Amino acid sequence: MDASAPILPLDPARRDAVIAALRPRFGDRLSTAQAVRDQHGRDESWHAPAPPDAVVFAESVEEVQAVVRACAQERVPIIPFGTGTSLEGHIAALRGGVCLDVSRMNRILRLSPEDMDVTVEPGVTRRQLNAHLRDLGLFFPIDPGADASIGGMAATRASGTNAVRYGTMREAVLGLEVVLADGRLIRTARRARKSAAGYDLTRLFVGSEGTLGVIVSVTLRLWGIPERIASAVVSFPDLASAVATVIETIQAQIPLARIELLDEVQMEACNRYSKLSYPVAPTLFLEFHGTDTSVEEQIASVEAIAAQHGGGSFAFAHAAEERSRLWQARHEAYYAALALRPGAKGWPTDVCVPISRLAECILETKRDLEANGLLAPLVGHVGDGNFHLVFLVDPDDPDELARAAAANDRLVMRALALDGTCSGEHGVGYGKMPFLAAEHGEAVEVMRAVKRALDPEGIMNPGKIVAFSP
Amino acid sequence: MDASAPILPLDPARRDAVIAALRPRFGDRLSTAQAVRDQHGRDESWHAPAPPDAVVFAESVEEVQAVVRACAQERVPIIPFGTGTSLEGHIAALRGGVCLDVSRMNRILRLSPEDMDVTVEPGVTRRQLNAHLRDLGLFFPIDPGADASIGGMAATRASGTNAVRYGTMREAVLGLEVVLADGRLIRTARRARKSAAGYDLTRLFVGSEGTLGVIVSVTLRLWGIPERIASAVVSFPDLASAVATVIETIQAQIPLARIELLDEVQMEACNRYSKLSYPVAPTLFLEFHGTDTSVEEQIASVEAIAAQHGGGSFAFAHAAEERSRLWQARHEAYYAALALRPGAKGWPTDVCVPISRLAECILETKRDLEANGLLAPLVGHVGDGNFHLVFLVDPDDPDELARAAAANDRLVMRALALDGTCSGEHGVGYGKMPFLAAEHGEAVEVMRAVKRALDPEGIMNPGKIVAFSP
């Protein structure tokens, strides 16, 4: 399938009208400089970038509303932008328009340690939030790797290494404030932990990728920093044994905070890049959170399960510094992968399947890669059945690019055939749009009906999730 | 506010046309008998019932589609029905129409112990499901008290005593199959534990109360039966101390399975009704799930917190039989409350607030009840900030009914003022509709836009959640 979307330039008259309308209010905070536009049209993926016509740096809800109203008046696209760390072309301005950069809306608006929740502006990043929380003994666990903005994480339903225990943004967001496509401001929910009062608008906007409105505040659940944290690394004779260990650990309901799989290709990359000396073999990175007693008990249980599957001895990291080195290596996996093949471009992709089908999906995928002469290290949040490949491709080799594209198609169709999803956490953007019908069938029409109901003119991040012409 | 909704009779010609169209296919499984209609127009609430014009007992997805298509053709309302145990008038046929009883669709369609998930028809009840799972060491924890159908629980976003640990139907449902208002069948999600592939239609239909479509299958997460379960009862000198214990327990992230508050009025009712002899004082019912070590540790932690707040000694129930007697008493709380005042009618209501505001909300509510001479025992899933009152009212005393209605209004507005919700788990139905605008403001218009997009003719359980005229 072709993951490239048509790029339709915007009518210059409409573009100019919006810029003229916004310039007096925003002054320097409205930019049409090529460098600024280019930076805002490119995410961290391999997908073709597309610069917006202008970038506005909003600093308040009222300013977001002003931008949306001006764009709505001229039917000019609006692309919300946080840190630009998405991976499926989410922020490419496929039809031109105004990029609404909310990174300067980065205040923590309200914090209740008693309720363990916080309300932040969308430009607050997860590291900024955690630095703010640390002294209170609280933390926000969702960790997609990048220091993404909370608004962007909500918009893309981000998850990451901790999701196996703490869930994804789907579970962590208690409520949102959203500026709709006509400039109205709504609040999707109050702060109660649960509610049965009407349609779940919070979950409708979480994962909507800016196609239904602009998120202008996020209320999040927080968690207490555990009394004890321990990390461990264990390697296995083969992938099937590593995956069997994961499945049994999940079935035993051991409340691991992290259980990450790296295949032998990725381990070699990590050893080289992060100067480690782990065995070059399928490996699990583990993290345990809890009381002292509970962490000891969890470790003993997982050690027993791993031993039954031929796992080696656990290399522990108890001190904060050691743990941080270990997880640093995990977070650098993408750059480590790139360094495996200098000059290559990384093309990340992800799928997620029921955990019972994980070994099958991974093993078949690795056979496919080998048969097609592709280098693509594998890492995975395998406790959720979610794994990633990074195709390392020569951008100047059209044949190799075509082989990678075909392998990506087969990967997605394999995941769907196993009752999985075309994206566990990277989202749809425009990169995974061609697979949505295969995954959801008629339900795509329901998504389109919702899109039409909330954005009848089709100005909110057009060309993403569902194709839609007003 | 007036919680009664206008009852609009259906045009007899349209009613007759639908019945004539469906009779050949359904025969005896289409009933217009008054007793059957009455039974299907009445839930377990105090709200005025409204019988449908006909009841169809569907046995397959195709039959549900046939009923929906016949009704759509004549623009006749459809009211999905599981066990009729809802509490806010959800199933009242306010505009007449066809009640679609799915209780005979009660097969377990698929079960994966490895993935710990199951797919069931909507008429499967939670006890039926748990009986099916027991020998596999698995269970489905969500427990609203009544032996409700899984379809109804999904439709109303049910929760209950275990939600503090296991979440609500919002978290437990992995995917749904839904027949839309025009008869199309969709599947909202595949079986992956997480997905970032498009709008979260699963969560949109969970809690939609039959107003967007008919749920015809539900895929649920399951959990392993814990190695050890222990229950305990502890009483406190006053409500504030009991609530402070709850707050600290939650903040300490002790993973309790249940933490239920019963006030002194409810304790007296339970003692009498269930032949117990607990102190007549604010009381917590607790349940601990985990390994032996973890349960011991949890108990020690909660005992220490409770002692700091003047809590008495814990009365434990370790054996399954003792535990079941204790939770039976909790589940019988409603009937126990009714027995406190023979001849009275019970009028249940619920709200949910951030836990830091719980004591304030409960204490102010109890002062209000006392000042207005109302008897209303209080029970609560207080770990979530959720509590219930049952007003015990003389149905023949209009003055008392008016005082109860006014107290209910004040309760809701109090919860909203504390950033809570008008319903933590009972839902909207038509009983809580008058409060939706106060809670959600402009967001109600977004709900209405979604309703209009998915049910343009307004035939799906009309008069519930959002008012809507095609």
UniProtKB/TrEMBL annotation, chains A, B:
The keyword Transit peptide applies. The keyword Transit peptide applies. Its EC number is 1.1.2.4. One of its GO terms (molecular function) is D-lactate dehydrogenase (NAD+) activity. Residues 48-225 form the FAD-binding PCMH-type domain. GO terms for biological process: lactate catabolic process. Its cofactor is FAD. Coiled coil: none annotated. It comes from the Bacteria. PROSITE patterns: FAD_PCMH. InterPro entries: FAD-bd_oxidored_4_C, FAD-bd_PCMH, Oxid_FAD_bind_N. Keywords: FAD, Flavoprotein, Oxidoreductase, Transit peptide. Belongs to the FAD-binding oxidoreductase/transferase type 4 family. PANTHER family: D-LACTATE DEHYDROGENASE, D-LACTATE DEHYDROGENASE, MITOCHONDRIAL-RELATED. This is D-lactate dehydrogenase (cytochrome). It comes from Elioraea tepida.
